[in-house]
Amino acid sequence: MSRLLLKVGALALQVILLPPLFAQVQETDIKTASKTREEAVKRSDLMKPRFANGNRAMQDAQAIRQQLQTASNDQRPALLAKMKSEYEMAITEYQQALQDTEVRDENGVHVIGLIGVIRNGLVSQQKAVEMLVQDKDMPVILSNLGLAYSGVEQYQDAITMLQQAAVLKPAAGTYMELGTDFAQVGKTPEAAAACDKILTVDPAANNMQAGCYKNVAIVLTNKGKLADAIAPLQKATQLNPQDALAWKLLGDALTNTITTKSEGGKMVYVIPAGTVEAYQRYLQLEPNGPYAGQVQAAVEGLAKWTKGVSTPTETKEKN
Fold first, then answer.
1. Helical H runs in the chain?
2. Whole-model pTM?
């Protein structure tokens, strides 16, 4: 799912996310000793229309988001209002779907309430999951509700829903969205930790983990925190060296940390190691890409600065 463009200077960046989980609707089959199969199917049937309505609203919101990328300034206000309305409709429908599928164990513990019990350390996560009478759609509803909250920039609510989904069913896509939303609320360590968990649920998802780190870096870049974006971008480029945009963003982030100092009676630039290399990697991968001109100009500018300039390594050796 693509996010609304967030501007940083002349550069507009998007968070690149996986397809929404609402495409993964499953048949509900609740197995429990205390409820008959007929009761489970009846409850599932009550939930499905709400679930479907929420999915349609999410799809409509995403279609509008795509339109925004080519919309004129005059068209944007109406499209933004419509997109927000669709996300809000999705939230309402998913919330009702949760109520329709509300389940209890024999002691009357609610699913959502149980999450608080876990966080308070009263029971282990494994025990809590064993206590739940789980509807197979529950993690998907929670994840989709989290995506909808994120769509209206209610990131803390999004995080709460996604964390609950991850307790019931850890999924790489859930952790990817969590990483982005944690970054949106300024919790960079938590964002990195969410990205780290992706390979624990899908050891082959290197590119997805790279995308998670890249998303976190894009959020930080759009917030003007380019120095903080360096570490996640370094991880992203290590995991997926073929991602041209990640290399370009890494070059930008490193360039933002260039400092100056006086040496031999003149002011020289101290350019972080890897800055030029990051830009060069972008040009190798996308020589005619959308940022090729900008990147080439940056490389030429850095070349002028480095003439007679001490690098960090050279400065250390001279000292």
1. 37-68, 76-100, 111-119, 125-131, 138-151, 155-168, 172-184, 188-196, 198-201, 206-222, 226-239, 244-255, 275-285, 292-306, 312-318
2. 0.73
